[in-house]
Amino acid sequence: MKTRIIWANLATNDIQKTIQFYTALGFKQNGKETSELVSFAFADSNFIINFFTAKRFEWALKGKPVNTETENEIIFSLSADSREEIDLWLEKVKKAGGVIFSEPEDFEVGYTFGFTDPDGHKFNFLYWPGM
Predict the structure, then answer these.
(1) What is the tens place of the pLDDT at every residue in 5-27?
(2) Distance CA 80, CA 24 (A)
(3) Cβ(113)–Cβ(86) under 8 Å?
(4) Handedness of CA 122, 18, 89, 125 (dihedral sign)
(5) Cα–Cα distance for residue pair 64/73, rounded to 1 Å
(6) Pairwise CA distance, residues 76 & 59, whole Å
(7) Strand order in the sheet with 75-80
(8) What CA–CA distance (Å, rounded) separates 75 from 123?
(9) Is 18 exposed, middle or buried (0-12, 13-18, 19+ CB in 10 A)?
(10) CA nearest to 120, candidates 77, 78, 72
(11) Angstrom distances, CA of residue 36 to CA of 12, 81, 92
(12) Backbone angles phi, psi at 92, to 5 degrees
């Protein structure tokens, strides 16, 4: 047995704003959005992030999600092919309305920056030579 795809499920307060943000970054929707869900494909490795309305997400969790304004849930790392590409992603994220919580910086042999989406979910772009 093996898994074929991994999905992450997060809450969104505004599906249309989520669509605008991730579309502006160049990610493709995974199917058509509904009134409770929009889904995006990340990278070429079958990683999907579903963004559910807060009410639907709470139902799925059987509990309360974290408050992303004051708490952290996870940081998704997205790979880049070069330091220059990191800088291009930085400008794209800013233009799309993302909030930079960690300015570009060297990390060991790599180069990275961190941002939040409109709902406060944290991501970073990372260049790591040989990765």
Answers:
(1) 889 999 999 999 999 999 999 99
(2) 17
(3) yes
(4) positive
(5) 12
(6) 23
(7) 75-80, 122-127, 110-116, 99-107
(8) 5
(9) buried
(10) 72
(11) 9, 34, 27
(12) -65, -45
Scanning the structure block, which residue is given the tokens 């490795």?
A: 45
Structure tokens at 111: 């180069």
Residues 61-103: tens digit of each pLDDT: 999 888 888 998 899 999 999 999 999 999 999 999 999 999 9
The predicted model scores a pTM of 0.89
How wide is the angle at C-alpha 6 spanned by C-alphas 103 and 19, nearest 5°?
A: 55
Pairing of strands 37-42, 110-116: unpaired
Task: Find tokens 């772009």 and name the residue.
Answer: 125
d(CA 27, CA 78): 12
